TrEMBL record:
This is RNA polymerase subunit sigma-70. GO terms for molecular function: DNA binding; sigma factor activity. Belongs to the sigma-70 factor family. ECF subfamily. Residues 33-92 form the RNA polymerase sigma-70 region domain. The lineage of its organism: Bacteria, Pseudomonadati, Bacteroidota, Flavobacteriia, Flavobacteriales. The keyword Transferase does not apply. It comes from Polaribacter porphyrae. One of its GO terms (biological process) is DNA-templated transcription initiation. Residues 134-180 form the RNA polymerase sigma factor 70 region 4 type domain. InterPro entries: RNA_pol_sigma-70-like (IPR039425), RNA_pol_sigma-70_dom (IPR014284), RNA_pol_sigma70_r2 (IPR007627), RNA_pol_sigma70_r4_t2 (IPR013249), RNA_pol_sigma_r2 (IPR013325), RNA_pol_sigma_r3/r4-like (IPR013324), WH-like_DNA-bd_sf (IPR036388). SUPFAM superfamilies: Sigma2 domain of RNA polymerase sigma factors, Sigma3 and sigma4 domains of RNA polymerase sigma factors. Gene3D superfamilies: 1.10.1740.10, Winged helix-like DNA-binding domain superfamily/Winged helix DNA-binding domain. Transmembrane segments: none annotated.
Amino acid sequence: MNKENIVLQHHIANAKNNKQTSFRFLLDTFWSDVYNYQLKRTHNENDAEDITIQTFSKAFDKIHTFDEKYIFKTWLITISKNVHIDLLRKKNISVVTETSKDQEEKVYLVVDENPTPEDKIIREQNLAKLLKDIKQLKPKYQEVIQLRYFQELSYKEIATQINEPMNNVKVKLLRAKKLLAEIIKKN
């Protein structure tokens, strides 16, 4: 087993134990693979992004069912394909998932309030500059950043406000913070 596989197995095991840094590692590592796969299928950036968010939401919710005999990327792509098929079946462009109370309770276990490297970068910014940087994000990411950091809403409150499952809110926030940190570093 090569070093990359060892690191990946370590993060999968940690994600199964609800370690936030490992969820972030898996999201960062495989986001492009899933997103590009969906972009080829949907030919629409917004749909590809929504399906990718939903894919990671479902994957993180079901991470304990992942069998290490299989390739993690293939498992994610399979989930992604199923999300897309479900979307086509519903013929509903606004990707919304039903989540049970049980699933939402599991999401609470994943929440880690420790500041991430992205949080530190975001906090160090001058407010006017930060607001300008936030405006470079897509509207759906601007919204979750606004609700979380300026209105200080909980994940559950954000989920209610934007009418999406809490799993999706978590994935959107992880993604939004990463993109915002990249914009800040670039400027």
